[in-house]
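pls design
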C-alpha cells in the first residue's frame, strides 16, 4: 500500500504523517508544485500552515499544482485523507462539505481530546477503536455547515468522528470532528492521528485510521 503525503510550503506535520503511514505501508513524499501522484493508492494532506495560511487556511493550497491531480484522483474514487490544515484544504477544494472557522475561543488550542467513532463502516475507520484519544492543535478548527446540510450529513452517515461530551475544543457544530464525502472516499478531520501512533505519546488510537486504508488501492 503506497501512501502519498503532500508537502506544501508551511506544512509542519508532513514528516510525522510519513512516519505514521510507514507503519502500515510505504510513504511516498509528494511536492506541492508537481503534477505527479507517483502511482500512490491513497493521498494524505497533512497539517500545518500551507502557504502561511494567507487569505484563510487552505485557500491558497487548494490551487497548488498537485491539487489538480488530487481532485482528479478523488473524483475517480481514489482515497484522500486531510488532517487539520488538510481538512481545510479539502473543504476549500469542495471535495468535502462545510467550512472550518476560527475557534470560538479565538485562541490556538493544543490538547488531547476524546473522540467518538460515529461511523465505523468507512474505508478510513474499519480498524479504528470506538473511542479514540488523539491530540488537536489549531486556531481555525470549528466545523460549520448550514443546519439543513448538517441534517443531510447526519442522515447520510457522513459524520465520521465527533468530540466526546465536554471535549469539543473549538465550538464545532454538533461536536463534529471529522466528515466524509458522499462517495465515501474523501475524509477530513481536525485531530491529528499521526501524533497518536506510538505508545510513547500516550495513545496509538490514530494508527487505526491509517491501517484501515490498507488494501484500498490493491
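designed seq:
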Amino acid at each position: 500500500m503506497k501512501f502519498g503525503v503532500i508537502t506544501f510550503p508551511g506544512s509542519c506535520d508532513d514528516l510525522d504523517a510519513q512516519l505514521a503511514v510507514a507503519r502500515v505501508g510505504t510513504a511516498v513524499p509528494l511536492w506541492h508544485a508537481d503534477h505527479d501522484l507517483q502511482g500512490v493508492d491513497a493521498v494524505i494532506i497533512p497539517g500545518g500552515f500551507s502557504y502561511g495560511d494567507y487569505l484563510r487556511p487552505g485557500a491558497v493550497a487548494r490551487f497548488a499544482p498537485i491539487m489538480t491531480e488530487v481532485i482528479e484522483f478523488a473524483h475517480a474514487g481514489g482515497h484522500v485523507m486531510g488532517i487539520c490544515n488538510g481538512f481545510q484544504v479539502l473543504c476549500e477544494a469542495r471535495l468535502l462539505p462545510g467550512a472550518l472557522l476560527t475557534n470560538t475561543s479565538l485562541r490556538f488550542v493544543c490538547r488531547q481530546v476524546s473522540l467518538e467513532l460515529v461511523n465505523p463502516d468507512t474505508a478510513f475507520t474499519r480498524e479504528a477503536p470506538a473511542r479514540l484519544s488523539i491530540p488537536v492543535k489549531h486556531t481555525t478548527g470549528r466545523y460549520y455547515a448550514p443546519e439543513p446540510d448538517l441534517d443531510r450529513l447526519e442522515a447520510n452517515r457522513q459524520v465520521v468522528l465527533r468530540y466526546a461530551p465536554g471535549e469539543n475544543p473549538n465550538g464545532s457544530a454538533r461536536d463534529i470532528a471529522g466528515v466524509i464525502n458522499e462517495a465515501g472516499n474523501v475524509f477530513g478531520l481536525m485531530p491529528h492521528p499521526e501524533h497518536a501512533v506510538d505508545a510513547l505519546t500516550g495513545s496509538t488510537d490514530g494508527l487505526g485510521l491509517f491501517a484501515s486504508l490498507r488494501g484500498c488501492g490493491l
